[in-house]
Amino acid sequence: MAGEKILIVDDEKSMCQYLSIMLKKEGYQVKTVTDGKKAVQEIKSSNYDVVITDIRMEGVDGIEVLSAAKEIDSTLPVIIMTAYASQKTAITALNKGAFYYLIKRAAKNEEIKMVVRNALDIHRVKNENVFLKKQLKKKDSYKEVIGKSEAIHKVFHLVDKVADTDSTILVCGESGTGKELVARSIHYRSGRANQPFVSINCGALPENLLESELFGHVKGSFTGAIKDKDGLFKVASGGTFFLDEVGETTPAIQVKLLRVLQEREIIPVGGTKPIKVNARLIAATNADLEKAVQAEQFRADLYYRLNVIPILIPPLRDRREDIPLLVDHFLHLTSKKTKKTKLISSEALELLVNYDWPGNVRELENIMERAVILQEGDQISSDDLPDKIKLHSQQRRKLVMDKAQMTLEELEKEYLISVLEDTNWQKKKASSILGINASTLYRKIQRYGLEREKVGQS
To answer: Quick check: is 274 in a domain?
Structure first.
């Protein structure tokens, strides 16, 4: 198909001109540069379909152009041309991923055209395969993130916006909200979808083991290091590395993570030579890292490097309209595993919707699996749910009845306390939520004798 973009790299202007004229006649868009450094910049800034490069050039040579091109786009075909035929250089070029090796002035015009056409055909097929893989993974991954609420749709929208960037993401949310599922959705919608997705829970390992897992180690660096080991940052190179519970890392690990983000390189435990890595970093935490920074428990410079694009996953109690969808989803999954098809009664579903879910989606999944396995009939009733869910419903009803007996003044006082507690007693913010000015709020605080310390004790 005519119109594909070809980059020609040669320090001989006459050769650039000769190839450019020939290939433009075939209908291709052609760009020429006369040194390897400019060629690498061109490949980074523009999308080319084929690169044709001389092998011997001052400064950055053709092999370096080839290596850089493959790092930028592993599917980009690179054709090597040289005036100095050498079996050694040919083998080196092909081992580095060159598509073809041509001898200048020995190669006929028709041979050059044929090689370019073949390279374009291969590039087109590879791109189509990558696209199809991404589409399939997109379809599969969104089955995992269930919801129709406005809160979760905001998350979906943000995932789609950031997926095709290489920006660092910080996913925040309570335990069990699905932070890793969101990270996987980002990965499978990105240009790295056909590369590894690697994850680790930073809070699950002691410092010395975590350091080795992240950065690797060299043989003999510590007791038990009987051979060199690649770290997960290197394993994830080209893909995405998900660091779960990054707030649990020690100051020493935080320093090393900062180096990865700044320099894009790691040093294995016991090693001295830096290793370049190319992994997109997605971190997650259930802690308030901003407060941890203020308390000097987390490095401020690392926090700002991680928090380029924050994504907040809402807790399940803030998206109750998603609970029926999730219940159906987990019933279906568990029924497939257990070969037991179950329905849920409207009374049981109402109890689930009204429960506050401190364990979030993970807790709901576990409860549905338990109900399907233990319930002997065809329908899950309220009796098949844990006592804590039924007790919570009874307490809610009692609270409603108690409030019905309260005076307007008592209700106002309770509401004021609730808003002040939710805003950490930030009176300006509280007055905005209450819809009154700050002076009115101060008068009401004085009227009801509200003090933070007394309210906390009560």
So the answer is: yes
Burial of residue 71 (CB within 10 Å: 0-12, 13-18, 19+) is middle
CA distance 214 to 207: 10
441 found inside a domain: yes
* Pairing assessment for the beta strands 216-217 and 229-230 based on DSSP bridges: antiparallel
pTM for this predicted structure: 0.60
Provide the domain limits for residue 246.
143-314
Q: What is the DSSP letter of 269?
A: B
- Same domain? 85 vs 184: no
CA distances from 186 to 86, 142, 267, 308, 384 (A): 45, 10, 27, 15, 37
Residue in the block written with tokens 């900062």: 258
The domain that contains 433 carries what CATH number?
1.10.10.60
Q: Looking at the structure, do residues 166 and 273 belong to the same domain, yes or no? A: yes
Q: In terms of residues, how long is the chain?
A: 458
Residue 200's beta-bridge partner residues?
Answer: 243
| Number of domains present in the structure of the chain | 4
SS3 state of residue 221: coil
pLDDT (tens digit per residue) in 61-104: 989 999 999 988 888 999 998 877 667 777 788 888 888 888 88
